[in-house]
Specification:
There is one protein chain. With 232 residues, the chain is mainly alpha-helical. It is built from 10 helices and no strands. Helix 2 packs antiparallel against helix 3, helix 2 packs parallel to helix 4 and helix 4 packs antiparallel against helix 5. The chain starts with 9 loop residues before the first helix and ends in an 11-residue tail after the last helix.
Length: 232
């Protein structure tokens, strides 16, 4: 316990203690004075860093929200250009990676359909799908995205006739995402493309010439238009 001055009135004791506190405060201030600029600079830097973090966090949250809004708008409209816009405007966001996956799926569907309509136009679309799936995987996506992209890439390889690459891709889905929604289907596809009968069918299909009928053939097959009614 601190010794208090004896024999003095309470108001004088408070004055003496107040003076002692003031002296101690001045002493501390004098010791800190040479470092005042550094202290203020450090405090100012901390405040600026905190303000920047709050601003960046707020902007990041806003950007993510806008990215998802744009992605959902693309889904409702079904316009491939809308997904490309999401990828370009919001790079690095989850919505952009999902948009890239949807673009890959669209290219895969187009390419697969072209195989049975106009085979010469199918490879570029299938390769575009493979490239998009690869870019999704290069971004180290979430497990669900990785599973979908790996399976899609295997399907694109299969449609391109690259059966061994496709088999390895399906096997990777079954092994790395054994609890995922596509694991069972991936195992079936891996077994299927590994069969000799499947390889023989793809060899046969590759030799087929599939193209839309020429305009001349289409004109010949088109029924003749009825003669125009004579004017009265």
């Amino acid at each position: 316990m601190r010794d208090e001055p004896r024999g003095l009135p309470p108001e004088e004791i408070e004055e003496i203690e107040g003076n002692a506190l003031a002296e101690k405060t001045l002493e501390v201030v004098e010791r800190l004075r040479p470092h005042a600029n550094a202290i203020l600079l450090a405090l100012g830097g901390a405040v600026v860093a905190l303000a920047a973090w709050v601003l960046v966090s707020s902007q990041a949250a806003t950007t993510k929200s806008q990215a998802w809004d744009a992605f959902l708008a693309g889904l409702s409209g079904g316009d491939p250009q809308a997904f490309d816009e999401v990828v370009r405007r919001y790079p690095g966001t989850p919505a952009a990676e999902w948009a890239r996956l949807v673009m890959a799926d669209m290219a895969l569907i187009d390419g697969t359909e072209l195989l049975f309509v106009n085979k010469d136009q199918a490879p570029p679309r299938l390769q575009a799908a493979a490239d998009l799936y690869t870019s999704v995987l290069a971004a180290k996506p979430s497990e669900m995205l990785a599973e979908r992209a790996t399976f899609g890439l295997a399907k694109a390889r299969e449609s391109l006739g690259q059966l061994e690459e496709a088999r390895r891709g399906y096997a990777a889905v079954a092994a790395e995402f054994s609890e995922g929604a596509l694991a069972g289907l991936a195992r079936e596809h891996a077994a299927m493309v590994g069969r000799e009968s499947t390889r023989q069918w793809y060899d046969w299909f590759a030799a087929q010439k599939i193209a839309p009928p020429s305009q001349q053939t289409a004109a010949e097959e088109k029924p003749a238009e009825p003669a125009a009614k004579p004017q009265e």
